[in-house]
Amino acid sequence: MTATATPPASDCIDFQTHPDQYRHWKLAVDGDLAKLTMGVQPDGGQRPGYELKLNSYDLGVDIELADAIQRIRFEHPEVRCVVLTGALDRVFCAGANINMLSSSAHGFKVNFCKFTNETRLYIEDASENSNVSFLAALNGTASGGGYELALACDKILLVDDRSSAVSFPEVPLLGVLPGTGGLTRISDKRKIRRDLTDVFSTVAEGIKGKRAVQWNLVDRIAPLSKWDKAVDEMAREMAAEKETCDSKGLPLERVELERDDEGLRGKYVSLKLGPELRTASVSIQLPKQSGPLDADAALAEGCSWWIFQLFRELDQVLLDLRLNRPDIGLVNLRVIGDVEVAMSLDDFLATSKNWFVREVRNFIKRVLKRTDNTAKSFYAVADEGTGFAGTFLELALACDRIYLLNDPETPVRMGISQANTGVFPMANGISRLQTRFLGEPERVDKILAASGVLEAESADEMGLATFAPDEIDWDDELRLATEERASFSPDALTGMESNLRFAGPETMETKIFGRLSAWQNWIFQRPNAVGEHGALKCYGTPERPEFDFKRT
Amino acid sequence: MATIDYSQKIPNNVDLKSDKRLQRALEAWQPNYLDWWREAGPTDFNENEVFLRTAISVDKDGWAHFGHVAMPDYRWGIFLTPQDKQRTIGFGDCLGDDAWQQVPGEHRNALRRIIVTQADTEPASVEQQRLLGHTAPSLYDMRNLFQVNVEEGRHLWAMVYILHSYFGRDGREEAEELLDRRSGNADHPRILGTFNEPCRDWLSFFCFTMFTDRDGKFQLLSLAESGFDPLARSCRFMLTEEAHHMFVGQTGLGRVIQRTCELMKEYPDRDVRELGAIPLDIIQRYINYWNSSSNDLFGGEISSNASNFFASGLKGRAYEDKLDVDHAAKNEFYTMDVWENGSLSQQEVPLRNAMNEVLRDGYVEDNIKGVEYWNKICAKNDIDFRFELPHRRFNRKIGMYSEGFFAHDGTPLDEATWNQKSADWLPSDEDRKYVESLMVRCTERGKIAGWIAPPPKGINGQPFDYEYVRF
Questions:
Q1: Could you tell me which residues come within 8 angstroms of residue A21 by beta carbon, excluding any fewer than 6 positions away?
Q2: Per-residue pLDDT of chain B (471 residues; tens, 9 = 90+)
Q3: Shortest Cα distance from B403 to chain A (angstroms)?
Q4: B311 closest CB neighbour out of A43, A205, A544
Q5: Which residues pair with A333 in a beta bridge?
């Protein structure tokens, strides 16, 4: 039985693309500089009903941007600075398309924002870890999401033509928030004074020219006649601060996943819907052998290097779950295979200085974070034949609960490796083990000291299992937990999980996904935004918004 | 620095003398304005005395004074039509409320944007026309040019007065920037595209005053309805001056046509080029160019800004208070040809979102009258030529029609056909070169260049051969 309706394949959003298929961006690489030019096709929306005017974007536009950033990291390790700029006259980017937002279901809006937030964090992740910096060359006004995109870059250069500005018109015009990290980044990244950020966020037309520099909203301004030169100079300055790299990149091939009524199937990762209502299982099949342990051999295998391909497949499955499977509430996750294989690459991944291995390591980190940030319940199911160890133990730790079969008849093993020491930090900046044992840091040391294979019994003693039933209780325990989970309010679960998953320190990233997104999602549900007379609903119509002025 | 009594220097009816804050602001702005005029205005004619009209009151009968004055000494005044204490807002969601005497906080930014955009066009046109004095076809025309220039300058004053009086520091900064941007400047151009197009010859000047200033008229008409009373009153008075600018355009083009027709009639077998006149088809192409460019100034056909501005009572329809319509315009629709996916279809658009188009309708109607006036000149001279106003879809750079290609009569075309045919409709380099070749200064009293007919009468009862500009 298929418990849940599967959307026809043609209705499913495809998250993979290629520069040859881009409609909205142009990627040009010239030596150690790359230029990403945004020229959104007005009639190129992902679905009918809105027009992408003034370089406004929808999910389709952002999928291309995410693809481009990923490609620059893997295909062009020689690139040291990426210039983001616009192809339109006097407009850089007007942000997310309002008609698209106001005509979208709540769940889609939330996941759209989540995806775009991840893309912007990927830009920052690349700056921090991939020997490349980003320059936002704002050739015209950058409003809302357009300015937020610029904020994700290391530096911002704004054209000084006496009219181009950076702005957040969301509050004054749309009754919502700049939801792609903007409020967080002007305060926590650019560290602008709160009274100035308050003013900036309520002036629809924004701030331009010298004042934008004074307030640190942008780093520099340049006149139109010297624009190209100023962009080039700044890009070269930024590139010079990074190391040169003469390695040849790796062309990213499309990840092939087979889609049918039952779910998705890749070489290593498969998604199967059901059997219980609103439930799916994700199975990760490890290879029999660990494969190459040196960088050149890994690069030679490229996209088929198993660990890389496996996480690329998982990334696609997560995105599919988020946007194409709204009915699924609970995911049972299994890693099937040998614990030795699961941990075999970990030391190499953690320590290699090679650019490709570094990129794969950072990619795994991002996929793990994407799991943390997926609004589904996750159970790690460690039963017979599973191998949650090292990098794959991180996956278990990313789940809300870990069910571990503890039965002498059917031995289940887990494992600890260097991968669990913080090689794949969470959004809060610390490792999943540190987050799990926030109140017992000594326990983290103890677990890491036990490096190697762990029998179920000791894994349970160390606190790695939520429940560790034996064979007799196993099926019942799991069935009950699954049925119970599927019966709870999905909203309450989403809220509960995202509060519980990120214990520990706050970072810009946790603030974006926690504070900013939560407030935004609240506003997205409020009548003042989406009610019949809400600001978002009225925008672009002859109606003016009518607010309920009571503060909550 | 000695205090200048600006209330003496600036004719006004806004009690400038008692408004300390405003005086202080204008004191700072006035010298910069004069610097701008000297640098970007009709620079080479600042020493000459010009027979100019100066607004001195808002009295219907005696609002202006005529006399010779050097342009930098022109008394740029600030006049608002008298306040009607009973005035209420005439449209939008605040219909019937008392008109605002102060800027409502919630509309502050939108109003400032509207005012700055309008204000920016005033100095822009002066800059565009700054070299035309050198090629004036007669003293009469030269004087008209300068009259238009100083009044655009006054309109800038009028808008700056509003910015200074009602928008605090932001307003003062905007006022500074109005003097900072320059038409056609690569680094800090004027806000709207048309106002960055060069106006190199007098045929362009007449087209500009006919079509672009007429956009100005309609923008002023819509702002004259504004719920923000000082803006409405200011624009109402500006309209009295604007009429002359369009007169210059319509009759200027008429006189060019008249001259060509006369020569065609007298020498039916000769090319008027040989006779130093401008062929009618070149005039038509200039009309096409400037009219289409000015159509863009009204903005997109379906516009949320237009809807917001109307709904909030900031910008109404032309003659809103005289129209016998539902002034809220809330649940009404406007039928327009919508260009979508490569074809036109009639669609109902919420009226408020179509306000730019409503304003453009009035503009097109006005222009048709102008074209009829020129056609009468042809008919009177027995010349078988009829000018045609290009369709509003023709050659657009802004709005939905900019996404397609349209013939002079509005028929959709494919790109190849457009590329092939557009040369018939738009001035060629050769046309421009020819027109420019005729631009030779003629400033002897009573004389006029060979490509244009003299006007039937002079200014303010003076004859054509009056010394309108003193050298």
A1: none
A2: 334 456 667 778 888 888 887 888 888 898 999 999 999 999 899 999 999 998 887 777 777 889 999 999 898 888 889 999 999 999 999 999 999 999 998 899 899 999 999 999 999 999 999 999 999 999 999 999 999 999 999 999 999 999 999 998 889 999 999 999 999 988 889 998 889 988 999 999 999 999 999 999 999 999 999 999 999 999 999 998 889 999 999 999 999 999 999 999 999 999 999 999 999 999 999 999 999 999 999 999 999 899 999 999 999 999 998 999 999 998 899 999 999 888 999 999 999 999 999 999 999 999 999 999 999 999 999 999 999 999 999 999 999 999 999 999 999 999 999 999 999 999 999 999 999 999 999 999 999 999 999 999 999 999 999 999 998
A3: 10
A4: A544
A5: A282, A380
B341 contacts on A by Cβ (under 8 Å)? 43
Q: What residue of A is the nearest CA neighbor of B302?
A: A540
Predicted TM-score of the model (pTM)? 0.85
Whether the Cβ atoms of residue A388 and residue A395 lie closer than 8 Å to each other? yes
Chain B residues with CB under 8 Å of A541 CB are 304, 307, 350, 352-353
Using a CB-CB cut-off of 8 Å, the residues of chain A touching B181 are 162-163
Total Cβ atoms within 10 A of residue A330? 24
Tally of CB atoms within 10 A around A518 = 13
At A225-283, the pLDDT tens digits run 999 999 999 999 999 999 998 889 999 999 999 998 899 999 999 999 988 889 999 99
- Confirm or reject contact between B311 and chain A (CB < 8 A): yes
Quick check: ipTM above 0.90?
A: no
pLDDT, residue A5, reads: 52
Please state which CATH class domain B6-321+328-470 belongs to: mainly alpha
Edge-to-edge strand list for the sheet holding A269-273: A258-260, A263-265, A269-273, A279-285, A330-336, A377-382, A401-404
CB contact under 8 A, B110 and A42: no
Instruction: Give the nearest partner residue to B191 out of A42, A163, A541, using CB atoms.
Output: A163
Which sequence spans correspond to the domains of chain B?
6-321+328-470
Contact with chain B for residue A161, Cβ under 8 A? yes
Residue A113 CA to residue B196 CA, distance in Å, equals 39
Going from the N-terminus, what domains does chain A have, and what CATH number goes with each? 17-240 (3.90.226.10), 264-495 (3.90.226.10)
Q: For residue B124, give how far its alpha carbon lies from the nearest alpha carbon of chain A (Å).
A: 14
Closest C-alpha to B225, from B322, B153, B154: B322
Q: Which of B91, B188, B338, B397 to substitute to test the interface with A, most A CBs within 10 Å?
A: B188
A541 and B312 within 8 Å at the Cβ level: the answer is no
Nearest to B85 by CA among B103, B99, B104, B97: B99
Mutate to test the interface with A, among B114, B308, B317 (most CBs of A within 10 A): B308
Strand A33-38 and strand A81-86: the pairing is: parallel
Alpha-carbon distance A536 to A542, whole Å? 12
